[in-house]
Amino acid sequence: MLMISNIRYQRFVQSPVRLLIIRNWHKKRVQVAWKKPEMGWTKLNFDGSCKETGQGSIGGVLRNHNAEFLFGYAESIGKTTSNIAELAALRRGIELVLENGWNDVWLEGDSKALVEIIAQRRLVKCAVAQGHISHINLMIPELNNCIVTHIYREGNRAADKFAQMGHKLKKPQIWRGNPPLEVLSIMHEDAEGKVFLRRRKA
């Protein structure tokens, strides 16, 4: 088997297209799944969306330790950038968390750079972005306990769906108790622990 594998490799490298296939063989597959928070904790998944036109929207969803829907939110925020949209989504989510009295909160988004900025309390050059960051940093200490983590996009689908819905809204909207039909299937899959395989470089 090893000899056959070596022969095939030698043949493949003659073609740049096939060489790309070989490189894919050496990529690791990462298992991605939405995780429930611990009992007594509330989990906020948030996301921002920005179209090619520059129009942005935000969305997010809160669930408890049983993966039960608590509330979701979505809003169109006008002209912006994807980074600002991500920050605005997190900021709005924390505001709603505090308004509803949740104290032990897990914050999770699919922008790794944003999560690192918040977790490390870093400064950024963009004044608009720093305004959101400063506000977020003021709100987080109001929580008893707070975790901030990054999740790949496959594990953040519910928040992404809310953010996409935000593009179609004329005014901010909040759902309480029952999620909109558009996210029901995603919510069920998350609750069941559906796993997605994501490729990444070794």
Automatic annotation (TrEMBL):
**What range(s) does the RNase H type-1 domain occupy?**
38-168
UniProt xrefs under SUPFAM superfamilies:
Ribonuclease H-like
CDD domains xrefs: RNase_H_like
Q: Could you cite one Gene Ontology molecular function of this protein?
A: nucleic acid binding
Give a single Pfam family match.
RVT_3
What InterPro entries would the database entry show?
Answer: RNase_H-like, RNase_H-like_dom_plant, RNaseH-like_sf, RNaseH_domain, RNaseH_sf
Which parts of the chain are coiled coil? Answer: none
Q: Which PANTHER family match?
A: OS05G0353850 PROTEIN (PTHR47723), REVERSE TRANSCRIPTASE-LIKE PROTEIN (PTHR47723:SF23)
Question: This chain belongs to which protein, by name?
Answer: Ribonuclease H protein
